[in-house]
Amino acid sequence: MDTLAPIRRASDSGAAERLVGQFLSELDNLTALDGVVVLGATNRIDLVDPALLRPGRFDFVLEIPLPDQRTRRDIFQVHLRRMPLASSVDPEELAKGSEGLSGADIEAVCKQAAIQQMRQFIAEHGNGTRAQSDADAFVVERQSLLDALKEVMRTKRLQWP
Fold this sequence. Notes:
mainly alpha, Helicase, Ruva Protein, domain 3, 6 helices, 47% helix, 0% strand
């Protein structure tokens, strides 16, 4: 919604104002359609034009917060479920160290750790017949996940515990 209906400013070229105006007009005309519900989503409600949020347009604003520790643990478990993991990997530890991350961020941590671990495995075992015969030995190590978590936390400018 912040892209479709950004806050209109006097300094704008006029294109944004026309776009928002047209969108509001179309939205107002939807009231004649019985049973139509319009949903919008944004990560930046502070950038949405206030006219869009007035009653009769978008009547309710529902904020979905970032996941709590238990939910982050569950998200880690979902993304780690199909990975061969070292016994030292603890989703609870990862959840404790990931405050401020979204589900997508957690997915990125898991993917980044798996890719890094695969690179390391190929470097150690080669990428030919030997690697194929050693494939059962491949596991994602705790340290790869912690390193990936630190990197994602750093790029989000969050503090590592």
